[in-house]
Amino acid sequence: MQDTVPQLLRAAGERFGDRPAYVDGSTTLTYAELHARVRRTAGGHAALGVEPGDAVCIWGPNSIDWAVHALATTYNGAVLVPATTVPVTIVGAF
Q: Which of 27, 34, 39, 53 has its CA 20 to 30 A from that of 94?
């Protein structure tokens, strides 16, 4: 049983290897490619000083790159703080 996102991603990469994991327009990443890209990106995050427990904000449009950075954040044990470029309407009183 996989208990973490990194464990699930690793297992999916091994099990579904060459199957499409993410399709964005004309760009497709297989599960194996996604896992490899996330691991490289997590290494880059760590080199920049991201450590377990850090909060990492990712702001940008929905894309393969956004997903890779989000998954890489969890790979390092950091906490993802997603932000969007899409206008949001908030309904209700706080």
A: 53
